[in-house]
Amino acid sequence: MISPKPAAKTIDKQAADWVARLDGGALAVDEQAALDAWLKSDIRCQGAFARARAVLFAVDGLQDTPPRRARSGPATATRRGLMAASVAGLAGSLLLLQTHRSVAKPRRFDSEIGEVRVIPLEDGSRITLSTNSAVTVDYRPEQRLVRLLHGEAYFEVAKNKARPFVVVGPKAQARAVGTAYSVRLLDDGQMKVLVTEGLVSIERPQARARGPFADFLEPAANIDNLVYVRGGEEASVRVIGADAGADSGRVLVGIAAVPADAAERALLWREGRLSFEGQTLAAAVAEFARFSDRRIVIKDRRLAGEHVSGLFAATDPLGFSHAVSLALGAKLKQKNKSIYLYR
Amino acid sequence: MGYVSDERSQWLGLYVLPHEGALRAWLRGKASLGFDVDDVVQETYAILAAKSEVDSIRNIKTYAFQVAYSVILQQLRRSSVVPIRAVADINALEAMIDEPSPEETVLHRQELDRVRRAIEAMPRQTRQAFVMRRIDGLSQREIARRMGLSEHTIEKHIARGIKLLLAEFGRGGNGAARASSLEKGLAKRDLPKASGENHR
Fold first, then answer.
1. Core vs surface per residue A112-144: b (16+ CB within 10 A) or e
2. pLDDT tens, A254-273?
3. B1 within a domain of the structure (yes/no)
4. pLDDT averaged over chain A?
């Protein structure tokens, strides 16, 4: 058409790059601006972007069988089969996906930045998803499987001894029969499990369940592979030496007692609030960063080390900043989407 | 984030994408009107992505064709020279579109086969990263760790996978064994020459 416009193929390439970039995690402020500008430059960019996103979801369609073609058959073999096969890189491996899957498909739930989302489940259990988090819920006849993909969630589990409730993280899983606990994945690869009620076991998958596509379905083989965490305790699960190979390395579980009021404070995000009790300003700011796009920047090292206490709305970094500037005698400046605190 | 929700992307992927081949075949038949098929398809997606809601759309295929058609009309209105043939086509759209059969309303088998083949044809590392990301739901960071590559490289592999899939769908009706009822219908009633190549 008109010559200076970029070709559709070029736009498709740019769209794919952006979608892949977004798929990797939140954008930096300048990237965000670049994406906005690109999308605004041409309606075709918006379309190509939507189409590139759509293509990704079409791939997810491979995990389903259209209902009318559903056959009864081994219910759980499919996903595993795919994983084993795709590791071997066999052509035709994805075929396995299509053929049978009679059990309800895993459902995925996401929360946006600043959103706290309550997900009631059919068995009476309840998941509260913290900001910018994602889980998939895969209820199978023999167990209730929840994968924490990123972020943090609080689980209130309806009792059912015959059907354990398992929260699966990348390297370890937390199993319960009837209890309440939160699981959080930190950016450094650590997993934190805070138990408010009951008993949870932190497990390592069995050897045979490991591999690049480890599914972590099996309960731990023996007692060496599992650690119990009781109500009022928090476990920090860390994998060391796992970076070289996929599944080498050891799982270290540290357990600390958490006083009831501290546990309650740690879970205030469920009500959209953050509570601090003498944490450093830097730590508090990091916490706020999870709940909002608006960044708080501390321009002074000593200020960052000051301690803060109080109860704040999780999605109101500006309100928090005002309170801090009053309490600590700091100056506050807003520029673009960022809030600067300095002395 | 304001850019195309997951829900809408999923809707586009499951309900619109399957008809893209038919839409492209139909658009190619109208190429004498002087538009670029890829441009129209992209604009169609932009409009469908920006719609405030899509639940009320009964027949998604027909609707997608109508949107594409409105895009063409818009472009014709903007251009100073309008081919005379365009005028005759304007009201012909509704009559042309078959009611889809129920199985056409979701991504059907041929389309899934196509996605599957396209994934299998990907270069090894791209395929591995793509499968881990989309099927297993691992994060790019985690995939990078498992494959011993940088996150940046994984992102490149994901982008490459998307490009290959976009190209696959962009190829429209040229693939083997693609003759949806719509294309057959069009071949019979509207565009015998243009869609003949797709018609077995």
1. ebbebbebebeeebebbbbbbbbbbbbbeeebb
2. 888 888 888 888 888 888 88
3. no
4. 75
| Whether B182 and B83 share a structural domain | yes
Domain presence at residue B69: yes
Q: Which residues contact A195 (CB under 8 A, 6 or more apart)?
A: A179, A180, A181, A229, A230, A231, A232, A233, A234, A235
**Cβ within 8 Å, pair A53-B133:** no
Q: Which amino acid is at A198?
A: G
Higher pLDDT, A226 or A263: A263
The shortest CB-CB distance from A57 to any of B10, B108, B128 is to B10
Contact residues for A232 (Cβ-Cβ < 8 A; gap 6+): A195, A196, A257, A258, A259, A260, A263
* Residue A296 pLDDT: 93
Q: Which residues of B touch A53 (CB under 8 A)?
A: 4, 9, 12-13
When comparing pLDDT for A231 and B176, which is higher? A231
Question: Please, which pLDDT band fits residue B93 given cuts at 50, 70 and 90?
Answer: low
Residue B55 and residue B88 share a domain: yes
At A177 the pLDDT is: 66
Specify if B64 maps to a domain: yes
Choose between A203 and B182: higher pLDDT. A203
CB contact under 8 A, A63 and B106: no
Contact yes or no for B145 and A1 at CB 8 A: no
Structure tokens at A227: 């650690």
Question: Chain B partners of A113 at a C-beta cutoff of 8 Å?
Answer: 1
Q: Is there a single domain that holds both residue B101 and residue B115? A: no
Q: What is the ipTM of this complex?
A: 0.76
Residues B125 and B27 occupy one common structural domain: no
Q: A110 forms bridges with which residues in the sheet?
A: A134
A328 CA to chain B: closest CA distance, Å?
33
Q: Which of B37, B45, B160 to mutate to test the interface with A (most CBs of A within 10 A)?
A: B45
Q: How many structural domains are present in chain B? A: 2
Instruction: Give the model's pLDDT for residue A16.
Output: 94
Do B44 and B88 reside in the same domain of the chain?
Answer: yes
Q: Where are the alpha helices (DSSP H) in chain A?
A: 8-24, 29-41, 43-60, 77-88, 95-99, 260-266, 281-291, 301-304, 317-328
Give which of A181, A135, A139 is closest to A160, Cα–Cα: A139
Among B23, B120, B127, B162, pick the best mutation site for testing chain A contact (most A Cβ within 10 A).
B162
> Which residues span the domain enclosing B56?
6-106+178-198
The mean-pLDDT minimum among A239-243, B10-14, B58-62 falls in: A239-243
Q: Do A24 and B46 touch (CB under 8 A)?
A: no
